[in-house]
Write a structure and sequence with these properties.
Blueprint lengths: L8 H14 L15 E5 L2 E4 L4 E4 L2 H4 L8 H13 L10 H13 L6 E5 L2 H16 L3 E5 L8 H6 L15 E4 L14 H19 L4 E7 L14 H12 L2 E5 L23 E4 L11 E5 L1 H6 L15 H16 L2 H23 L3 E7 L2 E9 L4 E2 L11 H12 L2 E2 L1 E3 L2 E4 L7 H19 L4
Parallel strand pairs: 3-14, 5-6, 5-7, 7-8, 8-9
Antiparallel strand pairs: 1-2, 2-3, 4-10, 9-10, 11-12, 12-13, 12-16, 15-16
Amino acid sequence: MTPHVVPDPQAGAAVKAADRAHVFHSWSAQGLIDPLAVAGAEGSYFWDYDGNRYLDFTSGLVYTNIGYQHPRVVAAIQEQAAKLTTFAPAFAIDVRSEAARLIAERTPGDLDKIFFTNGGAEAVENAVRMARLHTGRHKVLSAFRSYHGATSTAINLTGDPRRWASDTGSAGVVRFWAPFLYRSPFYAENEQQECERALAHLEDTIAFEGPQTVAAIILETVPGTAGIMTPPPGYLAGVRAICDKYGIVFVLDEVMAGFGRTGKWFAAEHFDVVPDLLTFAKGVNSGYVPLGGVAISAEIAATFDKRPYPGGLTYSGHPLACAAAVETIHVMEDEKVVEHAAHIGETVLGPGLRELAERHPSVGEVRGLGAFWALDLVKNKETREPLVPYNAAGEANAPMVAFGAAAKKHGLWPFINMNRTHAVPACNVSEAEAKEGLAALDAALSVADEHTV
């Protein structure tokens, strides 16, 4: 594939100038950033106005699960726009109902009612509200090493440093340590110990907080930005049992892990567990039009049969977003995208990343499944000291900056968070594209190796 536009640096400069004059960017010191001006994208690639093409190993923000500009989904949005561009959420709209039906068919268990939001953070906000109203309790337990969104409740539930500036300390949030054997907080020597000790720690936390005060436990089924730490066998089933024991609502956040990313429609299928509430967004329509939601169990839905649910959004179930979701799900079925994600993970990404780990002293651990992988970069494999400190900035983060620059030089746009790089391409990435990405990572890791001891 080649860029679909003739390089036009002057146009790119104009785009960047307008951006710098008027756009206020997320998570950034505005005067210290230099956003790339993007001219176009298709499939697994995007390109700038200078004609430089990049293989996107970030899938946008881990949401273009079927790649950029899939013609069927683009056409579906256009057709819906010609038919009914928008309509208020209180009405029954065919495409909204169909999107809900298709999603409910694929969620685990009896999560058959769908509350639509505009994205993942709002899905988490509403899931927590539902849990609190259903139980009459206020506290919510969430894990360190997690991310649940940037709205008020969601950011307080988040366990990474993006929370710190907005943490009120009064949102009823209690944090605990989830399992992560490579950097175990429980001094475990194997997955079984890590699982048992993590569950004991969680139950102790509940006991000391007062089980009667805890409305919900929220977990990313497979944590995403925090490091793609696949939970050990038995852990999520153990959390489910704890929730049942104390009457606590179990919420799984599948905003990033859902819709094929792990090689299943939802990551919960890997662990044979059914939550009470499941949040989704991103891959539901490959991010083409903003959409998220909560899949709700029959028991919790029944709470609001006669009692009004006190929540809603102007654009809940927006027709354009729902049309994109309907066609995205059909594309994923017809093109076997979920099966392909599992296959590419098992045969190309997983083996290829593990081979890189054997050759590069900077790679401490490889974790993941499907099209959802992380490389934990270290200064020393024996000590497991991270390549850069936790939440590093400035000069302390220089090794990761150098790694990222090297990846881009070799045509790969990397996903970097702290001391990790994630390999999260489109779920329909081809074998050739995946191998191209691995080759670029190989070259970039040589730069990271220079910072090991």
